[in-house]
Automatic annotation (TrEMBL):
SUPFAM superfamilies: YjgF-like (SSF55298). GO terms for molecular function: deaminase activity. GO terms for cellular component: cytosol. It comes from Faecalibacter rhinopitheci. Pfam families: Ribonuc_L-PSP (PF01042). It comes from the Bacteria. Belongs to the RutC family. InterPro entries: RidA (IPR006056), RutC-like_sf (IPR035959), YjgF/YER057c/UK114 (IPR006175). This is RidA family protein. NCBIfam families: Rid family detoxifying hydrolase.
Length: 127
């Protein structure tokens, strides 16, 4: 099987040697997404809820470019700068799923993220 590189202009360009996503063997793997709004050409910095919304929009755009959707996510990794934001992150994150069959997930606090953002999310979805 050959891997397929996923790209969409609706999500941020990679800022390093990686792809927005890779489709392989029935799954889509996204790179970590930060709260960068492509249309505005700027980071969203108006609070953790707005930032998580933007990250999830970016994830959604990559999944759709790969021919799948948020409903097919099986695993999520969330990195936050401050675990005190955990409840707000969960509130926004949960709003992107249509039922309570949530994917497996971990959420970890980290010292620093690219571009000094407060949240980064990557996912694995069924293609």
């Amino acid at each position: 099987m050959k891997k397929e590189i996923i790209y969409t202009a609706k999500a941020p360009e990679a800022i390093g040697p990686y792809s927005q996503g890779v489709k392989y063997n029935g799954f889509v793997y996204t790179s970590g997404q930060i709260p960068f709004n492509v249309e505005a050409g700027a980071l969203v910095t108006t609070g953790i809820k707005d930032e998580v919304h933007q990250v999830m929009k970016n994830v959604k755009a990559i999944l759709e470019a790969a021919g799948t959707s948020i409903d097919n996510i099986v695993k999520t990794t969330i990195f936050v700068k401050d675990l005190n934001d955990f409840n707000e992150v969960n509130e926004v994150y949960a709003s992107y799923f249509t039922d309570t069959n949530y994917p497996a997930r971990e959420c970890v606090e980290v010292a620093r993220l690219p571009r000094d953002v407060n949240v980064e999310i990557s996912v694995i979805a069924i293609a």
